[in-house]
Design goal:
Helix content is 87%, strand content 0%. The protein is built from 4 helices and no strands. The protein has one domain. It starts with a helix and ends with a helix. It binds protoporphyrin IX containing FE. Protoporphyrin IX containing FE binds next to α1, α2, α3 and α4. Keywords: Cell membrane, Membrane, Transmembrane, Transmembrane helix.
């Protein structure tokens, strides 16, 4: 399940950057499709994450839950950035949060929960 989770968030991050590129390029139709696939992957990340949270964690429960909440926040931030960015609205505040949340999630995922 850990491999499924890692694969899911990896693909999610790539699709997020593809979507950003499509916004910049002004390609609306492909953007819609990528965003739909991306939302499917949000669910996969969430599903595998919740499964890990429920099944694998007998200890470090608090840390795992914090990690899960940060992961969830990342999903919201990506969605905010893409929907607002697509409408030409400012996204800077969300970008700052995204960078911090990504650092935290990798810290929790690999260092704390390693
Ligand atoms: C885009 C969002 C997310 C990213 C980038 C992310 C990233 C990671 C990383 C790097 C790890 C460590 C993998 C390893 O040890 O090989 C991990 C593990 C984990 N993730 Fe996520 N995650 C995300 C979303 C979520 C969500 C939404 C949840 C829960 C609702 C979640 C729950 C977990 C749990 C419980 C583990 C611990 C697995 C273990 O070490 O045994 N993650 N995640």
């Amino acid at each position: 399940m850990i491999h499924a989770h890692v694969s899911a968030w990896f693909v999610t991050l790539i699709l997020f950057f593809v979507a950003l590129f499509l916004i910049r390029a002004g390609k609306k139709k492909p953007l819609k499709i990528v965003q739909m696939v991306l939302r499917l992957f949000y669910l996969l990340v969430l599903g595998t994450g919740l499964h890990l949270l429920a099944a694998a964690y007998q200890f470090k429960v608090l840390e795992a839950n914090i990690k899960g909440l940060i992961g969830l926040w990342i999903i919201f931030l990506m969605e905010f950035i893409l929907t607002r960015g697509g409408k030409g609205k400012p996204t800077k505040v969300f970008w700052i949060q995204l960078v911090i949340a990504l650092i935290l999630v990798f810290y929790f995922g690999y260092v704390v929960l390693g």
